[in-house]
Structures are given as structure tokens and as C-alpha cells.
Amino acid sequence: MVSLRLVATTICCVVFVLGGIPFSSNAQLDPFFYRKTCPQLHYIVHKVVWNASLSDPRIFASLVRLHFHDCFVQGCDASVLLNNTATIVSEQEALPNNNSLRGLDVVNQIKTMVETACPNVVSCADILALAAEVSSFLAHGPCWKVPLGRRDSLTANRTLANQNLPAPFFTLDQLKASFSFQGLNTTDLVALSGAHTFGRSHCSLFVNRLYNFNNTGKPDPTLNTTYLKELSKICPQNGTGTNLTNLDPITPNKFDKKYYSNLKSGKGLFQSDQELFSTPDADTISIVNKFSRNKNAFFDSFKVSMIKMGNIGVLTGNEGEIRKQCNFINQRSTELDIDIVASNELHEEGIVSSI
Ligand code: HEM
Ligand SMILES: *[C@@H]1O[C@H](CO)[C@@H](O)[C@H](O)[C@H]1NC(C)=O
Ligand SMILES: *[C@@H]1O[C@H](CO)[C@@H](O)[C@H](O)[C@H]1NC(C)=O
Ligand SMILES: *[C@@H]1O[C@H](CO)[C@@H](O)[C@H](O)[C@H]1NC(C)=O
Ligand SMILES: *[C@@H]1O[C@H](CO)[C@@H](O)[C@H](O)[C@H]1NC(C)=O
Ligand SMILES: *[C@@H]1O[C@H](CO)[C@@H](O)[C@H](O)[C@H]1NC(C)=O
Ligand SMILES: *[C@@H]1O[C@H](CO)[C@@H](O)[C@H](O)[C@H]1NC(C)=O
Ligand SMILES: *[C@@H]1O[C@H](CO)[C@@H](O)[C@H](O)[C@H]1NC(C)=O
Ligand SMILES: *[C@@H]1O[C@H](CO)[C@@H](O)[C@H](O)[C@H]1NC(C)=O
Ligand SMILES: *[C@@H]1O[C@H](CO)[C@@H](O)[C@H](O)[C@H]1NC(C)=O
Q1: Strands (DSSP E) along 102-227, which ranges?
Q2: What topology is assigned to 4-164+310-348 in CATH?
Q3: Is 114 near ligand 2, meaning CB less than 6 Å away?
Q4: Which entry of 218, 220, 285, 309 is 20 to 30 Å from 108 by CA?
Q5: Ligand closest to CA 98
Q6: Residues belonging to the active site
Q7: Which residues have a Cβ under 8 Å from the Cβ of 236 and sit 6 or more positions away?
Q8: Which ligand is nearest to the CA of 324?
Q9: pLDDT tens readout for residues 31-47
Q10: Does domain 172-306 sit in CATH 1.10.420.10?
Q11: Contact predicate 263/273, CB 8 Å
């Protein structure tokens, strides 16, 4: 099974290269960035993610979400991975992340293997982008050539994580505004929301729809009544909200287009999902219809939108750094170190000029 999927990776991506990919919107990143410095990179990411999935089938969804939560907060710069320290206020404790972010340990497993194979060259931000792509593919979703060359941030911003990450009770207008702030349009919104074709959610994030929606004393009228009964069993009215349920009730672990037919039968889990189809006269309805009918249309849009999302606010060139450990910025030179380096350089210059 493993080798079959590995062979398939190669075939899938070759076909896609021949088909051409519009990644030119950001000329700074390049799918072949590590061709010389870390040719095994994609294989390592693939191997570690596949291994992790054997004991945790949800990991594919968690890694796709992790890349999204990185990119929407000061760009795809691995700021989401930074732990609390004296100078870092971790984004992992922002409301949309706290107790729901997963896959951090798997990213560290990847980084450890990558550092052994090719030390000091591969950024954690690129690992997140690759892990998302590999996860999509291993869950039977699309694959694409991931533009690479991101660098890692020296900062994190919890306030910004609370501000920028969309909430599950957002209306369509709020969702559009949140995505447009990141340079993503309505098609991107509908395509990327399709990632809710797999993974799980806590009851607390949609229980507001089940019993007293918008202070009406009734459930959300757009919610399918059969689905409502199922959800009510898992998420009792005055429960703790900590139970988990599948985002896609029909094919919970598979990356497919079922998300969109779910929306058409009132089975979007979050208000933010159902709004895409149930907002009267919305321009998203026709896109949902198209994706629910045509898997290729969805997969092609998803690839384009993931690449677009992966370009948000990237650091390149000499910006940021390549972290040695994804949870911490590298040790900065102390003033003493800088003095020593500077005086060494002066000595060398002195030698050069005396020749
Ligand atoms: C459109 C606005 C979005 C909202 C409001 C939203 C909200 C949420 C919420 C509340 C959860 C459940 C978290 C939990 O209970 O642990 C979730 C899970 C998830 N989201 Fe989103 N999301 C959005 C867009 C996206 C995008 C753009 C992606 C990726 C491209 C994505 C991928 C996922 C995945 C894969 C999961 C399941 C994660 C897991 O099982 O670990 N979401 N989302
Ligand atoms: C494989 O997964 C197991 C369980 O998560 C983990 O302990 C182990 O380190 C992983 N091995 C590799 C090579 O990734
Ligand atoms: C980072 O913080 C998380 C949560 O607080 C913790 O589980 C993890 O062990 C930390 N990572 C490192 C490398 O210290
Ligand atoms: C994050 O969750 C933990 C555990 O539930 C909690 O103790 C902590 O206060 C939360 N952090 C923030 C910033 O809300
Ligand atoms: C974090 O983001 C907030 C909100 O955009 C901004 O006001 C603040 O300056 C940022 N903080 C840091 C340390 O960059
Ligand atoms: C969104 O942007 C893509 C290009 O990235 C474009 O093909 C598409 O037509 C745009 N959609 C809308 C609704 O503007
Ligand atoms: C919630 O109720 C307010 C008025 O009480 C209404 O304007 C708004 O559209 C409702 N929101 C939804 C999502 O139904
Ligand atoms: C969790 O779900 C089960 C049904 O699967 C239900 O009996 C239980 O009350 C729920 N617990 C909470 C805390 O919501
Ligand atoms: C839940 O709590 C509300 C308000 O505290 C109460 O009116 C309601 O009867 C409770 N529902 C259940 C099923 O316990
Ligand atoms: C609700 O879901 C059931 C199956 O779970 C389906 O038969 C029915 O058509 C759905 N209702 C609507 C309004 O789509």
C-alpha cells in the first residue's frame, strides 16, 4: 500500500507539471527550490505523514488546517509553530487554535528527519506547505507542485491570530471579508472551505445552531432535520462542548467533493459552511453546485487556491531565518558574539589589505 501510494505520488505530480501550474503570481517561490540542497525533502515529508496516519487517520486533516492557520496570521511563516517563551506569545493559545490545533509533533518529526538529511536549509514554513499537500494527496485528494523557498518568522502574534482567523459563526459577508483581506476571492473561499471534507470538530463550535440559534429558541432552519437529530445526540444542550464529530458525516476521512453535496442537503456542520449554499441569491451557490457535480473542477480550484494561500505574506531571500527547531527562533548572537565576529572581520580585512 505504501509503495503504491509513493508511485502514485510521482505519477500524479508529473502529470500536473505537464499540465502547467499557475504559480507565477509569486515569482519568489519555486517548486524546485530545494532540488540541489534537499532532493529527498518531499519523500521525507511523505514518509513521516504516512507513518503518522497509521496510528492517527485524522492527521491529514489536521496538517491541512495547520498550514491554513499559519498563512492567515502574518503570512505563511511558521509563526503558528512558535511556543511561548520570554519574547514569544504563542499563537497556539489564540481562541481558534487553543485545544484544537493538531499535528505539531508530526511537523517536529519531519523537521528532525529533514535536519539529518539536509541540515539548516529547509524552513518550517515550507514543511507546513508540503505536509498539507502530501496530506491532501494521501487522503485521496489532489496533489500539486508546492512552490517553496519560504523562510521562518522571528515573531508570532496571538492578537492577530484572534483577529484574522475566521469563526464558524461567520456570515457569508464576514467570510468574504476575512478571505479578501488575505487576497483570496469568492472562488478561493468556496474551494478552500472544501477542506471541511475531512477532519473533526468540537461540539462547542456549532452547538449554537442546534437549540437556540440566533436567540430564536429554535435550531438553525437551514440545518437538515435528520442531521440535527444526529448532532443533538452527540452534542447535548448543556454539555461541555468537548465531544468531537466528523465535519463530513458521509465520508469523514476522505478528501472528496462530498462536502458540497452535503451543503445542498443541509448538512454543512458550521454556519460558515452552510452559508455558502443557503444565503439567498449568493454568488457562492453556483460555485457549490459546480463543485458538487464536477470533481475535477473542485480539485483544480483547490490546487490553485492552496497555492494562492501558500503565497500569503511569505518571507524570502534574507528575511527571517531557517529555524533549527520549529517551536523556537534560533539563538540570537549576544552583543559579545557580535563584537567578536566584527573584530574577526576587521582582522581579516586587515590581512587582506596588507597583502
Ligand atoms: C472559511 C472559514 C473557516 C472556518 C470558519 C473554519 C472553522 C473551523 C473550525 C471551527 C474547525 C473545528 C476545530 C475544532 O473543533 O478542533 C475546523 C476544522 C478544520 N478546518 Fe476549518 N475553517 C475555515 C476554513 C478552512 C480552510 C480554508 C481550511 C484549509 C484549507 C480548513 C481546514 C480545516 C480542517 C481540515 C479541519 C479539521 C481539522 C482536524 O480534524 O484536525 N478550514 N475549521
Ligand atoms: C512513526 O509513528 C510512530 C507513532 O506516531 C512514531 O512513534 C515514530 O517515531 C514514527 N516514525 C517515523 C520514522 O516517523
Ligand atoms: C511547545 O508547547 C507545547 C504546548 O505547550 C508542548 O506540548 C511542547 O512540548 C512544546 N514543544 C517544545 C519543543 O518544547
Ligand atoms: C488555552 O487552554 C488551556 C487549557 O484549556 C487554558 O488553561 C488556557 O488558559 C487557554 N489559553 C488562553 C489564552 O485562553
Ligand atoms: C500584532 O497584531 C496586532 C493587530 O494587527 C498589531 O496591532 C500588533 O502591532 C502586532 N504585534 C506585533 C508584536 O507585531
Ligand atoms: C478568483 O481568482 C482566480 C485566480 O486566482 C480567478 O480565476 C477567479 O475567476 C476569481 N474568482 C472570482 C469570483 O473573482
Ligand atoms: C439573526 O437575527 C437578526 C435579527 O434578530 C437578523 O438580522 C440576522 O439576519 C439573523 N442572522 C442569521 C444568520 O439568521
Ligand atoms: C458525548 O456524546 C455522547 C454520545 O455519543 C453523549 O452521550 C454524551 O452526553 C456526550 N458528552 C458531552 C460532554 O457532550
Ligand atoms: C439547559 O440550560 C437551560 C438554561 O440554563 C435550561 O433552560 C434548559 O432547560 C437546559 N436544557 C437541558 C436539556 O437540560
Ligand atoms: C436530509 O437528510 C436526509 C438523509 O439524511 C435526506 O434524505 C433529506 O433529503 C435531507 N433533507 C433535505 C431538505 O435535503
Answers
A1: 200-202
A2: Peroxidase; domain 1 (1.10.520)
A3: no
A4: 309
A5: 4
A6: 69
A7: none
A8: 3
A9: 999 999 999 999 999 99
A10: yes
A11: yes
